[in-house]
Amino acid sequence: MMADLGLGKLAGLPLAQSGGSFWFPPQSSTVAAGSDFTYFVVLWLCIIFFVGICGATLYFMVKYRKRPGHKEEITSTHNTKLELAWSIIPLILLLVVFGISTYWYLEMVNPPNSGVREIKVEASQWKWRFKYEGAPFTKSWTTKKLYLIKDKPYQMIMTTPDRDVIHSMFIPAFRVKQDCVPGRYNKLWFQPTETGEFDLFCTEYCGRDHSEMITKVVVVDTEAEWRRLVESEYDPEKIDLEELGPMIYADNCTSCHTLDGQQIPGGGPSFQGFGERWGKDRKFADGTSRVVDEAYVKDSLETPGKNVVEGFPNAMTSFNFNEKEREAIIAFLRKQ
Ligand SMILES: [Cu+2]
Asked: 131 CA distance to ligand 1 centroid (A)?
């Protein structure tokens, strides 16, 4: 790993500490030290040149000031050595900065070749949702926090729903940041190196509650701990119906049912207008009909072949939700 420059400590300033300081949170990912190193190289170059140039300017102002008895000197127009020096030295310094920043930029954009875990990130006004790909359970969205395992590489696949606005995910302790753009998938990878809780901010002004679009990244040591946390968040007993309904829909129904009237080939009717169909008769393929109510939704979920909606295939998988989950999905459907 990259050692920090230590220049801050040398100069007696709390500028370049690696363990977190007034200026920076602790370095908690594999690229954090490189990001800080690049920053301090540029910062110290700027400080040295600023002090040098301003100092020389002040010195010359005093030294050559107009005063009684002082004779004006003829200004020299050319000094080849000096001019070469002030072209070549900055060129070398800029190439060094270019080299360091390119090296760390490539580290930041290229994830390792294997073992990378994908997490789908969905930002919307004004909340974050995370879905853990390849998790050994299906109900894998978390909305309260982002859970990670120490020393494992992660690839974020980041997006925002089509009708939302641009957001941006920023984890200062990891020194990483990436936009979430409506209708696009952006990528961001990182590997946490410390356990603990870290801030995650939306860093793109996104409307009224932008300032509250903050959450925490929780990094734990073991797979078992991580799994317990992710599952605890999904625990239907602990989640509001309001939150649970859309989660169940997103996790289980989107492959066959849309909310915007579009028809998925081989899927079921769009849920658009479901609230209006509530309490009215629904016609089925076998010529029977039935009122759309709680019992109908329960049967649709548990025994989908019983009432097959006219014009649709008998192709729905059955779901055995508990009472609270069913209540949540019914509330969600009635709002469509
Ligand atoms: Cu935002």
From this structure: 18
